[in-house]
Please model this.
Amino acid sequence: MRLVSIPPPVGPQFGGGAQPPYHPHQAAPGPAPYFPYGPRPPAAVNGVAIAALVFGILCFLPAVGLVLGVVALLQIKRRGERGKGMAVAGVTLSSLGLALWTVALVTGGVTAFWEGFRDGSRSGSVLALRKGDCFTSPGGLEGWTSTARKVPCADEHDGEVFALVTVPGTDFPGDDSLTELSEDRCYERQSAYVMDGWSLPEEIGVYYFAPSEGSWSFGDRSVTCVLGREDGTRFSGSLRSDATTLDAHQLAYLEAAEVLNAALDELPESGYFDDDVSDDREWAGQVEEAVAEQVRLLRAHAWPAGVREPVDELVAGLGEARVAWGRAAGTADPDAYWLREEEAWEATDPSLSITVREALGLATSPPAYDEEVEREPEAGEMEV
Model:
């Protein structure tokens, strides 16, 4: 997307009016008679002073108004023109405006102005999209685009905005850096918008709109994170599942489950069986702590009558999983460790949460993941 700045039209050139030349009366031969002088015509008003006053009042180009005011004062002194009061007023108002602009730059007022510009931009622009908006785009979610028409999420749409990420810095970071930042930040924020990962259809993927170099120069600093179908077809209905769509009990359960999901997602990257299991043992200890925290959160919440029994059964199963992860964390021998970790994975059975989910009205089908991944399950695969 590219924003084009249309420079303001060049205004009239303001210049001082020239005084008519003064011709003294020529004396006639002989005695000089006395001729009374008539009134001297008034001096012209300096045009630059008028311009300085106008720019000072409008306050949109304070530096220009300040310069014009100084020029006008010099011209008035040299030419004997009128308009000193207007020039002084222009200098004063422009100085005040320049001070206000400086404060705005320091305190972030320009950013607020840009956000206001985005809010006021036409409904067909990508810049107008906000978290929770659903939209259609002429080219779908592929390639370059600057247009997006907001539609109700109940209607068919190409994408749903789930986060806006502010890009730090003042210089354009380049396309490669923006791509890396956009992918990292958008994936990080997905779980906050779709807290129930089980409810997200398998064909939904993450997309984003990043600032172009042109829009950056005009203050665009936001990456727009979007959910859409990977096959490029449209879908209907919102994918959102957070505090705005969930009840208090659903929210409490998902917040507790996310503690364990986040720990499982920190699986050491190697993924290979080797003689050094120090990182794996440390990770297993972190998972043990996460299971204990999940149990604490589940016990602390006041569940409805129909949910208490399934939650108690889940807590009992999590207790066994905690013991299994603790054993893995305490096993130094590599061969024994891998056996302990496998036992811990088996104890962390996602099916334990199905009865609780059913009682709470949440999705009950675990997400499907790539079966070729043996040791690196996705976040949420073993959610209980």
Remarks:
- DSSP finds eleven helices and five strands in the chain.
